[in-house]
Write a sequence for this structure.
């Protein structure tokens, strides 16, 4: 049952709204003025608050502005006997879901409340989903190398600094990029990922910058590239060490000027993108070998985060295994399996050349192939 708060200094209005809304099946609380309403909002979570604008002590707009700081999930419907445009605009700017005039049209009011409740549900579902995604992208470990990675993420996330993430395959570079994005100011916008190693060199420029119709054989229509798709958000260039020199030159220009040009076009398009990149290569050596532009390296490496191989953080392996056992059990809709201590010690001793990705695959294999308790014999058979 949805819970609503009516905030109005007129007792008759509160009583009339209560009768109507309780008949519709809503749970109703009342407040006599903005000050009382604000206190109730701070103590109780409401789906919707119906607030008069003109009230003593604290008017509706002032209450709305203060309440938005603490009542994140509540949708506000403002009510006023003076249905002027200024009030409606001010209410919307302050974060109100809608604005209705007194006396309210009953059908319109009920539709507005239903829509506001639906918005509240969607926002809560979005928050829950984000928490689940954040948990999936959580960097697990308490070793010194991982602690340094986490500290750096927390420092740079709220900035606009470009980040270069280095480390071997399977170590979790993509997870670092996602954590930075999710903790940063652009988290509400898109994170667009490009695996530079997976795209043929002749197509990488089209992939990044888009192309115009007829730009090359097979370009039957205009295509928007990854830079434009990430406008306002974050672009993650994975395995950038595999990018062609010609594409590197265009990426450099985009970073310098915040502009791109589609393949086959001549129009400059402004983009507002935070760029992060990752590589398993030694880019300084690639520069010496003539495979990577030094000026692009310096543009990308404002902050460098090195993700260590799993062999350098063996104390984190039990924590990672516990997380994988929980995650895999959730995916399969089953209870988490247990691992014996000697099986855990054996897993800690393995070389893990595929790093965290390999460890996760092994744990999933053990969950599928073994009984409720995974022992040393199981690990030797399937790891």
């Amino acid at each position: 049952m949805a819970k609503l708060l009516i905030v109005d200094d007129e007792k008759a209005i509160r009583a009339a709204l209560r009768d109507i809304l309780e008949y519709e099946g809503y749970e109703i609380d009342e407040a006599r003025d903005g000050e009382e309403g604000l206190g109730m909002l701070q103590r109780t979570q409401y789906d919707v608050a119906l607030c008069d604008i003109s009230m003593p002590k604290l008017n509706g707009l002032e209450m709305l502005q203060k309440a938005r700081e603490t009542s994140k999930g509540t949708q506000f419907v403002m009510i006023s006997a003076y249905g002027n445009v200024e009030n409606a605009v001010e209410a919307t700017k302050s974060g109100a879901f809608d604005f209705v005039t007194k006396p309210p049209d009953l059908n319109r009011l009920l539709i507005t409340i239903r829509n506001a409740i639906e918005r509240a549900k969607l926002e809560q579902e979005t928050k829950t989903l984000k928490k689940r995604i954040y948990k999936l992208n959580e960097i697990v470990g308490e070793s010194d190398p991982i602690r340094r990675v986490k500290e750096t993420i927390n420092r740079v996330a709220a900035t606009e600094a470009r980040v270069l993430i280095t480390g071997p395959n399977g170590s979790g570079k993509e997870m670092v990029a996602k954590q930075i994005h999710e903790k940063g100011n652009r988290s509400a916008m898109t994170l667009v990922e490009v695996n530079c190693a997976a795209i043929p060199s002749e197509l990488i420029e089209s992939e990044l910058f888009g192309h115009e119709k007829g730009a090359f054989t097979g370009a039957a229509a205009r295509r928007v590239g990854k830079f434009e798709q990430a406008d306002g958000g974050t672009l993650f260039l994975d395995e950038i060490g595999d990018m062609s020199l010609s594409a590197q030159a265009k990426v450099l220009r985009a970073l310098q000027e915040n502009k791109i040009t589609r393949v086959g076009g001549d129009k400059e398009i402004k983009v507002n993108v935070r760029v992060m990149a990752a590589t398993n290569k030694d880019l300084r050596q690639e520069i010496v070998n003539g495979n990577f532009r030094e000026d692009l390296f310096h543009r990308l490496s404002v902050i460098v985060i090195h993700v260590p191989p799993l062999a350098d953080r063996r104390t984190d392996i039990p924590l990672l295994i516990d997380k994988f056992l929980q995650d895999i059990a959730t995916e399969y809709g089953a209870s988490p399996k247990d691992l014996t201590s000697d099986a855990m010690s054996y897993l800690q001793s393995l070389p893990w050349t595929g790093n965290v990705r390999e460890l996760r695959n092994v744990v999933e294999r053990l969950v599928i192939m073994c009984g409720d308790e995974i022992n040393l014999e199981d690990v030797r058979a399937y790891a």
Observations:
- The mean pLDDT is 89.
- Residues 106-136 form the longest helix (31 residues).
